[in-house]
Specification:
Layout lengths: L7 E8 L4 H6 L5 H25 L4 E4 L1 H6 L1 H8 L5 E4 L12 H19 L5 E2 L10 H7 L4 E2 L24 E2 L9 H4 L1 E2 L4 E2 L4 H18 L2 E6 L1 H4 L2 H15 L4 E3 L2 H6 L21 E4 L17 E5 L2 E4 L24
Parallel strand pairs: 1-2, 1-9, 1-10, 2-3, 4-5, 5-6
Antiparallel strand pairs: 7-8, 11-12, 12-13
């Protein structure tokens, strides 16, 4: 349950890369590849705006600092709508995998300042191009007080990551995970250099995305979709996205939100002198699903679809199924055999 009201959350992220994808990631600086970034501004972005305005939906725009430099009017057009969020997406759409710590810190500092100037808001979410956190990135996200990251693949629901190593400390930010299945680029991005063969039909992609949403809705989860203006902005593809939105809106109790609001609904809070808990700002707690094994004490219930909320004071049930038994309120941590998004 999301915000104690909605069964499922759905959120759209637009990676507004413009020329930075081609110059920063692919190192292509000649006119023809750069013109594909120009398509973002001339065609793709206006069509995305028209679609979001039609449905009155919020979105999160992940924007490199270079794009704010090169396209201030396009950025102002996003900000002036008043319902969208801006997130940090590198400065030059650069890979941070081999960047020294000080260099990555300086780029992040500059990028945050540039987005604050261009959008009038401080970015609280990060997506490292291309879906790749570096060895120092998580430390910097905490240093700059980011609320969430969206670069990892560890679940299909929001979760709290352990990075940069498996088994490391839990980070004080939420991971809103990405997936290639819910990104338009693998399906639609065609390129010779580097070679990428994405020329799928919109109907095929619509079928996949509907099935992904069906799974999120059935599990009470979160549908996290990433698109790029030069990919999704083609006429048949933006029409497909319109059809997908109409399909999602046909379901009851779906919460459309920016990625920041989605992350805030499950952000860990840390009191001085205590370890982080999965308590939400409203005290409702973070949703967990019971898959506990027997054994007495906390977590004696049978595997089922029961949903509870893990709070700082205990495991508060919010839904109940016949096969489940009571969760003791003394459970202050997820019992063995549980999982949480």
């Amino acid at each position: 349950m999301w915000k104690d009201r909605y069964r499922c959350a759905a959120t759209l992220s637009v990676d507004f890369d413009a020329e930075s994808l081609w110059s920063g990631t692919f190192k292509l600086t000649t006119p023809s590849p750069l013109s594909r970034g120009d398509y973002d501004v001339r065609a793709g972005l206006p069509r995305i705006h028209a679609l979001l305005d039609k449905h009155e939906l919020p979105a999160t725009f992940m924007v490199p600092g270079q794009v704010a430099d090169d396209h201030p009017d396009a950025c102002a057009d996003i900000a002036e709508r008043g319902r969208h969020e801006v997130g940090y997406h590198g400065y030059f759409h650069e890979s941070v995998l081999e960047l020294p710590l000080d260099e990555e810190r300086e780029l992040m500092k500059r990028g945050i300042a540039r987005l604050e100037e261009g959008f009038g808001a401080t970015p609280r979410g990060n997506r490292s191009p291309p879906f790749a956190l570096g060895p120092n990135t998580a430390d910097l996200l905490e240093e700059f007080r980011f609320a969430y990251d969206s670069s990892l693949f560890g679940h299909d629901e929001p979760y709290r990551p352990r990075v940069p190593v498996v088994g490391g400390a839990l980070r004080d930010f939420v991971e809103l995970p990405v997936s290639w299945e819910l990104d338009d680029a693998p399906y639609f991005l065609f390129s010779f250099f580097p070679y990428m063969s994405g020329l799928a039909t919109p109907s095929q992609v619509l079928e996949i995305w509907k099935a992904e949403f069906d799974g999120s809705y059935a599990s009470g989860g979160c549908f996290l979709l990433v698109v790029h203006p030069f990919c999704i902005g083609r006429h048949p593809r933006i029409a497909m996205l319109d059809e997908l939105i109409q399909y999602i809106k046909s379901f009851q109790d779906v919460w459309f939100a920016t990625w920041r609001r989605n992350g805030a609904a499950c952000r860990p809070s840390t009191a001085p002198g205590s370890r982080p808990s999965w308590q939400t700002p409203d005290g409702a707690g973070f949703p967990v699903r019971v898959r506990a094994r027997g054994g007495g004490g906390c977590g004696t219930e049978k595997p089922c679809g029961w949903t509870a909320r893990l709070t700082a004071t205990g495991c508060r049930p919010v839904a109940r199924a016949t096969a489940c038994t009571w969760i003791p309120r003394s459970c202050t941590a997820a019992p063995a055999g549980w999982w949480r998004p």
